[in-house]
Every structure is written in C-alpha cells, then in structure tokens.
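Q: Could you write out the predicted structure for this multi-component system? I'm mainly interested in how the pieces pack against one another.
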Amino acid sequence: MALRLVALLTALLSTAYGHGLQVQVKQDRAVVIHIKYEEGQPFSFKEYTIYHSQEPEKPFAVGKTDRYGRVSFLPDRAGKWILKAFGEDGHGVVKEINIDGSMIGTQASGQDRLLKVLTGVAVIIGFFGAVGILRKKRWAL
Amino acid sequence: MHIPDGFISPKAYVPAYVIAGGLWIYGFKQLKSRLDEKTLPFIAVITAFSFAVSLLAVPLPGGTSGHPVGVGMLSVIFGYWIAFISLSLVFFLQAVLLGDGGITTLPINALSMGFAGGLTAHIVYRLTRRINERIGLFIAGWFSVVVASLIVAFILGIQPVIDHSPDGKPLFFPFGLEITLPAVVIPHTLIGIIEGIMTVIGVEAYRSLKVEG
C-alpha cells in the first residue's frame, strides 16, 4: 500500500515537473519597429504577425503592439521579413524589414513627405492638363 | 479608410479590379465628354484639394484617426463619374507616393469611396436639396462618407470568411463583421460631419467663383 502511494506521489510530482517552465532573463538585441498614426498617436495594442518572406504561411511572431505602438522581435536569420499590423478599423501596415548578416534591420530612407505631396498635386494638375489638351481640338471647333 | 495592401484577399480584389476597370473606362469617357475649358481648372484644383485634405488625419475617440475625402463636393459639383475618376487618381497617387492605401486595394478604395460615395452624394443631394440647399449639401456629404465606410467595413469583415487556412485561420484581415462594422462606421459618422461641412463650403465657394468668372 505504502509502495503504491509512493509510486503515485512520484508520478504526480514528475507530471508537475513536466509542466514547469524554465525562465531565463537576459539582454539581447532586438529589431524594434515603431508604428504610429500620421498625427503622431501610437498604434497601441494592435495585433501583429511577423513572418520570413520565404515562409509566409508560418508566423514567426504574433502579438500586440505595446502602449507606444512598438513591435520588437529577434530574427533567427537574415533576409526579408514581413510585419503585418492590423487595427480593427482597417488601419494598419504591411512593412518589409530587411535583416542583414549581422541581424540588424535596414530600410531605405524615404523621400520627404511634403515633396511627395507636391509631386502628387503636380501629377493631378498635369493629368487634367493632358485631358484638356486631348479635348482642345473639340473646343477649338 | 484607405485599405492597405496585404489586408484583402485576391478573391476580393481581382473581381474588384474587373468591376472598377469597366467603370474607369466608362468614367474616363464621361470625363472627356463633360469637360470644358471653364470647368477643367476647377476639377484639377478640387481634385488636388481632395488629395491634400485626405492627408489630414483627424484624431478620433479610441485612439484611431480618420479624414474627409472631398467626394461629396466633387460629386455635387461635377457629377459622380468625374468624382470617381478624380478620386481614383487621388487614391493611386496616395498609394504610390505616400504608402496610404495600396495598389491591390486600389479598386476597392476607389469603388467604395469614389464610386459608391460619389453616387450616394449625388442621389442624396437630389432628394434633399428641395428641403434646404445647405442642409441637402451637408447630408449628401455626410452620407457619402458613411456609406463608403459601410462598404469598406463589409469588405474587411468578410476577409476571414472568404480566405483562410484549412484550420480556419484568416490569411489576410483577421477581424470579422461584428468588429469591423462598428470600428469603421462609427468613427465615420463623425468624419461625415466634417465631410458635410466641407461639401457645403466647397460647393458654395465654387458656385460663387463660377458666377464671378
């Protein structure tokens, strides 16, 4: 009887040990992506998925952005990674992150936003100007 | 309200491209036939204004933001076909230059905000202008944005149903209609107020300039 009790206790303890988690806290270098709305508000507590471009069906990390709209992850290999972050209202980003051999994220520096807006306005004026030229013959008649 | 690339399944954006493609061809013909030397500069300037105003994000309760589109103004002044073509151009430029919206999602953004929004503004203005001109313009602007937001919410909300992995995990946008409808439409009832005011001011300013011209 006593032997059975000891065996049962041992089995219970081994099961509990099997469910235990080992926690290790250490410093490491992560890639941090900051996401915010245009007016500066952080994209806080929104769902995101990160995957390597060669394995789009296999998420590497899923979670929620933090209070400051940040996502951090530690890539396990170089290459092109994709971050998808979703707001319930359709706001969100799909961002490519290039990780080089030293596991550092790089991105091309973007053109100035104001310059892009002015380019857009110029294209619109040009588009309607071109339509006007196409129609000029009819107006002249 | 611009849906970015990667949020919409090809099962939705490919048919949308087919529908929008047909409407773009017809709409461009309408644009060419309705243009004259006097209206052309106004269309260009108001389209450029619409491009610029779409970049002004208005902070909304809940930490999100939204912006007016200018579709009510364009539709009431020039008709919904010109509004559709003008806003399609705006959305294309916003996607390629600024990364707002997307190329795969362009037809959905154009159909919801440009076509449905423009058509709604046109119909609502026709129905309500007899009551009061200004109220008619305001309501037309408000409805144009709210109806467009309903369509955007619907398209987003059906993504988990139309494209998912064998185990049911959404492959594109993860939230269903029960989340997208309130999340998209409720903020746009507020944005609609700005769009309504902009429609009143824009149309009245155009009419005064047109008369003076």
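A: Regarding packing and overall arrangement: The first strand of chain A starts at residue 31 and ends at 34.
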